[in-house]
Specification:
6-stranded antiparallel beta sheet; binds manganese (II) ion; alpha/beta; 28% helix; 20 strands
Length: 460
């Protein structure tokens, strides 16, 4: 019976029971490099800039339309500093399709409004408009940093980073003391802290002179000294407040990583590293770091933009291949994080179908909500293709369903890739506290996501 059981039953094993010491060391090395990348990539712009720096170090060059492409060539296209597409040209023609992995590098955060700065009661504040799905109460009373750009009328841009260096000042959104919060505490968690109430405190010293708005003037004068900007320049700025926590190991065993923005830079980094490590691939390998996923993949730098199609069409044209012929034979891993089963909140998951920490890369055949609505729902054949690849390459992986039926759901870039007539499946790292200012992942799953994407890129 035992023999028959082990032959017929699908049983999952903890990843740590399946890897040897050498692989544990490789996993640690990989995660150390990822932690450095994440710590320095707090916005999509920084994630793209740091990815380009690493790519150039690995022999990638900017793609110039019309460039002659030879097998093994490594190229990238920077989309306005906010999204990035990289490719390693394969030995086969693009008529055979490409192997694509697509992740996003934007994360939930607090964008400063365009008319953001004000003074009240001799304190200066920035008003914000949150970006992506957040639980607002999580964003008060935590240290915040300010990142972004100010675009000036003369065509130049000013990069702003305040709070990342050890001795930098930081910012915060205040909350009521419990002593006076009786009314607030009766509200629902959705209403207790409101979006319009997320104001970041930025100063309290009045300018040493007579007149009104002296604190605002003092704050603006500091910004003018630092960056040469005025209040009007905020109109054409993209400044964001993000959590100021450093990325760190979590747990006595150091088996997990805590940090801001794992969703989805943890998959973006896995793709990047896999692309750097793939050698002389058969089919052209493409790595996408997209923007705007958290607000529906809209915009010129999101996955619904034709920027990606233009890039792929250029590559195809250089080989005399029609783009649609390439797409219909291509395969895409939509590499995005999934929900990890959290034993503190078991009620939202169906345990057998939920992904778990240390069980490897989580594959989502479908996401969506209310009867899989809004999901691209990959074909069984596509899942089988992954099973074969992962088995051949010793990738530890698991099926992942985003919550119980009718509990909720989520979207990724998968449906926009599938819309292009590309076979697409979601796969990524299981995350706890997703979209919180400090998210949690397990190292083994991060490493297996890298291995999974590499297996797809290195297909024979
Ligand atoms: Mn995501
Ligand atoms: Mn997300």
């Amino acid at each position: 019976m035992d023999e028959l059981r082990s032959k017929l039953f699908y049983e999952q094993k903890n990843g740590y029971d399946l890897i040897d010491t050498a692989e544990r060391i490789a996993c640690e090395d990989y995660c150390a490099a990822y932690m450095r990348y994440l710590n320095n990539s707090r916005t999509e712009r920084e994630a793209v800039r740091n990815a380009i720096a690493e790519a150039e170090g690995n022999g990638f060059v900017p793609y110039v339309p019309g460039m002659a492409l030879t097998p093994g060539m490594k190229i990238y296209q920077n989309n306005r500093g906010k999204a990035l597409t990289l490719a390693v040209i394969g030995r086969k023609s693009l008529a055979e399709g490409a192997v694509i992995a697509g992740a996003h590098v934007d994360s939930p955060r607090l964008d400063l409004k365009q008319v953001t700065l004000y003074e009240t009661d001799e304190l200066a504040y920035f008003r914000t408009h949150y970006y992506g799905g957040i639980k607002k109460y999580q964003w008060v009373t935590i240290p915040l940093e300010l990142h972004g750009v100010v675009a000036l009328c003369d065509g130049s841009t000013v990069d702003v980073v305040i709070g990342r260096e050890k001795d930098d000042p930081r910012f915060v959104i205040t909350d009521l003391l419990p002593h006076l919060a009786a009314d607030q505490m009766k509200k629902t968690m959705a209403e207790g802290i409101t979006g319009e109430g997320l104001h970041v405190i930025i100063g309290s010293t009045p300018y040493a002179d007579e007149g009104k708005d002296r604190v605002k003037l003092a704050v603006l004068s500091i910004l003018n000294d630092l960056y040469g900007i005025t209040e009007e320049d905020f109109l054409s700025a993209e400044l964001v407040a993000v959590p100021a926590f450093d990325v760190c190991e979590i747990g006595l065993d150091r088996s997990m990583i805590g940090g801001y923005g794992h969703d989805d830079r943890v998959c973006a980094y896995a793709e990047l590293k896999a692309l750097f490590d793939v050698e002389a691939p058969e089919r052209t390998c493409v790595c996408i770091l997209a923007d705007k996923e958290e607000i529906g993949s809209e915009g010129v730098s999101g996955m619904q933009s034709e920027a990606f199609d233009c890039f792929m069409a250029d590559l195809c044209a250089s080989q005399g291949v029609e783009l649609r012929r390439c797409y219909e034979k291509s395969f895409c891993i939509s590499a995005d994080v999934t929900n990890a089963y959290d034993p503190i909140y078991p009620e939202v998951c169906e345990k057998r179908s939920a992904s778990k920490f240390n069980y490897g890369l989580g594959v989502c055949k479908f996401t969506g909500a209310r009867g899989k609505s809004g999901s691209s729902d990959a074909s069984a054949e596509v899942v089988a293709h992954l099973r074969r690849l992962f088995a051949e390459n010793h990738v530890i992986w698991q099926m992942a369903e985003l919550g119980k039926v009718d509990q909720g759901g989520g979207g990724t870039i998968a449906k926009f890739m599938a819309k292009r007539n590309i076979d697409t499946i979601d796969a990524g790292v299981p995350v706890m506290s997703m979209h919180a200012p400090f998210e949690l992942v397990a190292k083994l799953d991060c490493y297996m996501t890298y291995k999974g994407v590499l297996a797809a890129y290195a297909e024979k």
